[in-house]
Structure formats: structure tokens, C-alpha cells
Amino acid sequence: MSDDGDVPEPDSESTEPDSEPAPRRRSRRRRILFWVAMVTGLALVAGVGAVWLGYQRLNRNITTDTTTETLLGPPSARPTVAPIAYDAENILIIGSDTRAGADSSYGDPDGGARSDTTILLHLSQDRTHAVAVSIPRDAMVHIPSCQLPDGGHTGATFAQFNWAYSYGGTACTIRTVENLTKVRIDHFMVIDFSGFKKMVNAVGGVEVCLAKPVADRDAKLYLPAGRQTVNGTQALGFVRVRETIGDGSDTERMGRQQQFLSSLMQKAESDGVLLNPAKLFPLLDAATSAITVDPGLNTVSKLYSLASSLKSMPADQLVLLTAPREPYVNDHNRDQFQQPQADELFQQIRDDRPIGLTGSASPTSGPTPTSGASTGSDPRSPAFSGRTANQDICSSS
């Protein structure tokens, strides 16, 4: 500063930013802000576009069955719903054993399809409890006359439960379940073999533990004894095999199937799959491509809405069990529903009452409901503990 207080003139050769005229600085800042806004906007649009495209792909994956509802006939021909259970949901989950297309390696592709697994899932009106009941595929039941897509009808017959699917598909299976249980089915979901394998692979496999080695040619399953992680193909064999794991009964297999599904869900939760979009999308892609559903569940948003309604339900309030059964009197290789236990169970579901937890029961004394990742009614069933299949049997061997 000079002696007289005047501010000295700036050096004409100065290259400091302050030497730039104010209008030029404002113009440059506007250009920078413009390009930042453009890049940010493009990134946002790209992100939203990717989400939108992914959402559309998942929706396209889902196969909608619009025929079954028509074949079931008017509401008056189906079970009524008690007022107390108006907002409860009953979903029939069917695992089809079709050998067509991608599943042709599992048997004769011209051999027809039957319901390899059927689970009646009841969600309470207030979503505080739920029960999943496996229907024995070998149970001898009365299969009612069913309407076919071509306008014909099947004849009423007494046969194994899983033949209902072979005779008349999903509609005939629903009609048979409703006839047996007097429970109105609100929604259905049919899952195929290939989709199940993809889901297991999408979570990086699921851990099982075997007390003994397994070598089963029919199920294409060859596993050593001990704890191990199975991939999709091995997992499919694991849930389908009968003779070479456990006691060879279908009841034991149903318990194993329920347990494996619980372990699959827990694996997705424990590995952070549900919170990682890169991991979650392959799982959702596999799951949606595996299912055929009614119009009430045929979009991601509808499925998400149903799942969201369960977020407040305690994990230990999901009870997994097998319908009360016993050897069929005329053929001990087949089952029949045990009475009055079966009727009492289905009455509880119709009344939307929680299924009480009990202790162990014999294989022929009815259901042994347990909570969470649980077993079926047979105490000899392999047990899943936490996220590990058959952990109890393996750890004790």
C-alpha cells in the first residue's frame, strides 16, 4: 500500500484468476454448472432407466394363468369364507414335476406332469401368523370332476392326490384341495424345476449336511457325507430324492423340502443378497422366470405388496407342517388323511386361528408343527438348524 493510502494498480501481466473479468467468470461457472447438471441428469436417467428396464423384464418373466379361474367356475361353486377370515390369504404353491422343455433330463418328457410338491400357505388376516401345510402327494383322496380347457370334463375318481394335476392341471388341483379342506384358495403359484435351480445358484448355493453319502441315479444326486454347499442341480436332487435319504417316505421328503426352502431364504438374508442390487436382481430374475401365477399375483408390485404385508410378522410365527396322515388301509405304500386331526387342522385354518406348537409325534399320529425353519411331522426327518440343512443329524454322526 502506498503512503497516501491509494491501492496500487495490479500488474498488467498477472495471471491470477481474480484478473478475469466478472462477466467471463460468471459465464464459465454457468457452463460448468450446466455440464455438471447434464452429467448428473444423464446418470439419473440412466439409473432410472435401468431400474425401469429391470422391472419390466421381471414382469415379463412372470407367466400369468388366466384359464384356471374360469375353469374353477362361479364363486358359489367354491368354499365360502368365514367373516373372521375375509382378509386372510390362502395361496396354493405347486411344484410341478413336468419333464418337458428344460426339465426333460429328469424323466420321460411325454410322461405328463404331476404335482411333485403342494403346499397350502395360509396368511392370517392380521398378518401376525402363518402356516404352510404340505399335502402328501401319495395320499389317496377323492378327486372331483374337473372342467378342462377344451370344454370337456374329467370323471370323479379316487386316486393319489398328485394325479389331480395330471388329470386337470392347476384348476383340478385347487378343486381337489378345496374339496378336501373346505379352505377357499385365493391365489396360486406353480414353480418349475429349472427356476428352482436358478434360484439356488443365484444365492451361491445352499449348505446341507448329510450323515451318510448319497448316490441316487434317479435323482441324479451324488454327494459325500458331511457339510457341504450344493448348487442348483444338486439341490433339486436333494429335495426330490426319496429312497436314499432318511426313511424313504414322502412325508420325510416333504419336511426336507420345507426346510430347504427356509434355508434358501435365510441364505439370501444372511449374505446380504436382499440389500445388494447386483446380487438381488439375478435372484429375482430366476424366481420370476420360475413361476406361473394367477392375475392377482402377476406383477412384481403385487408380489412385493404381499411380501410387505408380512414384514411385521415374527419369524417364529410361521409354522411348517405336513397334513396329518397315516398309511392307507389298503396299501401301506400310500397315505390317507388321519381323522379327526386333519379336519381339525383345516378348521383352524378356516377360522384363521394360530396353529399351536406341540412336541414330537410319531410318523402316524398327525402333524408336529414347529416354527421357523422346521421339520415336517416325522421325527426321523433330517433337521435344519439355522441356515444348515440336516445339521442335527450331521453333528451327531
Descriptive notes:
This protein has 397 residues and is of the alpha+beta class. The chain contains ten helices and 16 strands. Strand 3 (115-123) and strand 4 form a beta hairpin. Residues 358-377 have a biased composition (Low complexity). Residues 387-397 have a biased composition (Polar residues). The chain crosses the membrane at residues 32-55.
Ranges where pLDDT stays below 50 over 5 or more residues in a row are 5-17, 99-111, 358-393
Estimated radius of gyration: 29 Å
Q: What about the largest sheet? A: 8 strands, mixed
Order of helices and strands: HEHEEEEEHEHEEEEHHHEHEEEHEH
The order of strands across the largest sheet is: 1-12-7-2-3-4-13-16
Structural class: alpha+beta
Number of strands: 16
Cα separation of the termini: 93 Å
The gross shape turns out to be globular
**Helix share of residues?**
25-40%
- β-sheet strand percentage: 15-25%
User: Count the helices. How many?
Assistant: 10
Q: Can you give the mean pLDDT? A: 76
